[in-house]
Amino acid sequence: MTTGRPSGSRLKLTLEMIKFEHTVFALPFALVSALLAARHQGLPRGLPSAAVVAWILVAMVAARSAAMAFNRLVDIRFDAANPRTAGRALPAGLLQTSYVWAFTFVSVGLFVLAAWRLNPLCVVLAPVALIAILGYSLTKRITSLSHIVLGFAIGLSPVGAWIAVTGGLSVVPLLLGVAVMCWIAGFDIIYSLQDVDFDRSQGLHSLPVRLGNRRALVLSRILHVAVVLLLTAVGIGAGLHLAYAAGVILVAGMLAYEHSLVSPTDLSRVNVAFFTMNGWVSITLFCMVVLDRLLSP
After folding, report:
1. Are 68 and 103 in contact (CB under 8 A)?
2. Cβ atoms of 27 and 60 closer than 8 Å
3. Buried b (16+ CB within 10 A) or exposed e, 46-62
4. Per residue, what are the HEC states of the chain?
5. What domains are defined for the chain?
6. What are the pLDDT digits (tens) for 141-198?
7. Burial class, 36, CB count within 10 angstroms (exposed 0-12 / middle 13-18 / buried 19+)
């Protein structure tokens, strides 16, 4: 129970529940898209306004917070039964479901507010984004393609950032969005290897459950090869230069190293592959886009 629990402790538990630090996975891709969109629009200094960037950040954090909290709520029964997740705040009784529901609704409200502050198209598309990011949590009950659904939901972030800056759409953010989808799906397959036996026992679906560990890892590698090809297409479409190309090469190396850390029979380094390497992938690409912009004529 949370009654009488200091607010600072509750905040810490909430941030742990939604894995706030993992916002770093998708946020840099949204910022990359915003930078490319500003250049495409010919904005002063090729930068989006501070207000637009601020509301993009609010939208990103709010959407992800809502998605993670909703996931914890609808999966509480499975989390309680899984030894790997039984210690999470909700199944352990450290947070009340009423509090997490309230947190979810507030996060959704902030996301809608951010969309309204950005532009009309963002408001129109906000329900689509919410259906995707919240609906993912239910997909493991019905399809082994839940990893793709998760990738699609997070892949909307660079598309949304482009729309936030330009009020329209283009091929470049769509390519970037598909790249993010493949990247997320690929490493989510790796992460789900930890729960194959549990998922099978509970009737939950995943590609490792359906294909087996070995073939699922092959598919994950194929998805990550596609990421490199799509990022290359983004660079060509956006007219980027050598620094960006170097960034894509670095990303390719990181993804290759990520796959070297896991095998069908050795999952001891899954957390390093999932948490550490993927954080560096997105940050590296963002930094190289910024460098490319600084070095461009």
Report:
1. no
2. yes
3. eebeeebbebbbbbbbb
4. CCCCCCHHHHHHHHHHHCCHHHHHCCHHHHHHHHHHHHHHHCCHHHCCCHHHHHHHHHHHHHHHHHHHHHHHHHCHHHHHHCCCCCCCCCCCCCCCHHHHHHHHHHHHHHHHHHHHHHCHHHHHHHHHHHHHHHHHHHHCCCCCCHHHHHHHHHHHHHHHHHHHHHCCCCHHHHHHHHHHHHHHHHHHHHHHHHHHHHHHHHCCCCHHHHHCHHHHHHHHHHHHHHHHHHHHHHHHHHCCCHHHHHHHHHHHHHHHHHHHCCECCECCCHHHHHHHHHHHHHHHHHHHHHHHHHHCC
5. 7-292 (1.10.357.140)
6. 999 999 999 999 999 999 999 999 999 999 999 999 999 999 999 999 998 998 999 9
7. buried
In this structure, the number of other CB atoms found within 10 A of the CB of residue 205 comes to: 18
Residue with tokens 């009340």: 96
The one-letter code for the residue type at 102 is A
By residue count, the chain amounts to 297
| Residue 227 identity (one-letter amino acid) | V
For residues 26 and 279, what is the distance between their CA atoms, to the nearest angstrom?
9
For residues 268 and 252, the answer to whether their CB atoms sit within 8 Å is no
Residue type, 160: G
CA distances (Å), origin 58, targets 118, 166, 228: 11, 18, 29
Tokens of 16: 């742990």
Angstrom distance (rounded) from CA 153 to CA 123? 17
Model pTM?
0.92
User: How do residues 67-117 score in pLDDT, each as one tens digit?
Assistant: 999 999 999 999 999 998 999 999 999 999 999 999 999 999 999 999 999
